[in-house]
Amino acid sequence: MKVAVLGAGAIGAYVGAALHRGGAEVHLIARRAHGEAMRAHGVRVLSPRGNFTVRPHVTDDPAQVGPVDFVFLGLKANSYASCGPLIAPLLGKDTAIVAAQNGIPWWYFHGLTGHPLEDRRVETVDPGGAVSRVLELRRAIGCVVYCSTVIEEPGVIRHLEGTRFALGEPKGGVTSRCAALADAMIAGGLKAPVELDLRDEIWVKLMGNVAFNPLSALTRATMVQMCEHPDTRELVATMMNETLAIARAAGSDPQVSVEKRINGAWRVGHHKTSMLQDLEAGKPLEIDAIIGAVVELSELTGVPAPALRHVHAAIGLLDQTANAVPVGAH
After folding, report:
1. Whole-angstrom Cα distance, residue 200 to residue 166?
2. What is the pLDDT of residue 323?
3. Which of 18, 183, 191, 199 is deepest in the core (most CB within 10 A)?
4. Are 298 and 135 in contact (CB under 8 A)?
């Protein structure tokens, strides 16, 4: 099996290192100091499950890799539409694209047989079809990540917790390509269940992301701080209940209670969400897939979602103003 990891950051490099350890031919595509360090010294993984170092091929030029069996996308969803020049050299006739993203994927309604919104494009995450032109729907394999990693220093990945990467076809069922990928990931020490309908898993994770990510950026609070502040906890619960109602109207039935989801977040402790980390690093916020698309789905399904709409408005403005040059500044 030949796998390219496009965007070999904290998660991408960890997955690539695991696949390489399991026997796959892995090519990591990364730039700047992190890519240079991995090219020179390999990928060093520090984990409570055991440290290890591997030396897969690392490059900043996908043309050096050529067509692969699987492309594992380690990019943020807001980079998908512009990744065409990077991904094109990696695509053969049957190459599958594994999108390990948060939130609603661009393929969400593809193949949702019998639903009124079957094959409807979600404009928030695929505006005008810009993403699906780059990432063809037939190539998509969904992936819901339950794993936390950070780049401790260039070339060094700190694995904090979790090894579960749930996989699934947009059209459902278990295909040979999903089974083969799962086997390769399991051989590398990861958990990779193939779900008959991955959408339920998407919503279970999204219940947390849709509330905690934007609220953490707006308040600069950690997970436990948001859970222990009574009014914020109530707002989180309201946003989660709205999200559950939208999920069910969109054809899914995630089996998790709001209280259980909040308590699980509380147990994470003083963790900063990815959106808060991006805000502090001066990066664009991953708003569209995490909350914007959920608001769009509320409109498509006719499910009211006032709390989600208001928080979406506030985080959208924050994204515009956080790194803007103040009026009158030189």
Report:
1. 11
2. 72
3. 18
4. no
- Give residue 291's identity as a one-letter amino acid code: I
Enzyme catalytic residues? 205
Q: Which amino acid is at 320?
A: Q
Question: What is the DSSP track for 175-237?
Answer: -HHHHHHHHHHHHTT-B--B-S-HHHHHHHHHHHHHHHHHHHHHHT--HHHHHHSHHHHHHHH
Residue with tokens 């037939």: 138
pLDDT at 327 exceeding the cut of 80: no
Contact 228/275 with Cβ under 8 angstroms?
A: no
Among 258, 257, 256, 252, residue whose Cα is nearest residue 236:
258
Asked if 74 and 82 touch (Cβ cutoff 8 Å), the reply is no
Cα–Cα dist 225/180, whole Å: 41
Strand partners, 237: none
Considering only CA atoms, give the Rg of the chain. Answer: 19
Q: Is the pLDDT of residue 329 over 70?
A: no
Taking the CB of residue 164, how many other CB atoms lie within 10 A of it?
A: 13
The pTM score is 0.93
Mean pLDDT calculated for residue range 226-248: 97
Per DSSP (E only), the strands in 30-155 are 43-46, 52-54, 57-59, 68-73, 91-99, 140-153
The alpha helices in 63-168, defined as continuous H runs, are: 84-87, 130-134
CA distances from 147 to 52, 62, 160, 191, 297 (A): 17, 26, 8, 10, 27
C-alpha to C-alpha distances, 101 to 209, 289, 313, 323, nearest whole angstrom: 11, 9, 22, 24
Pair 294, 305: CB distance under 8 Å: yes
Predicted pLDDT of residue 269: 87
DSSP code, position 98? E
Confidence of residue 312 (pLDDT cuts 50, 70, 90): very high
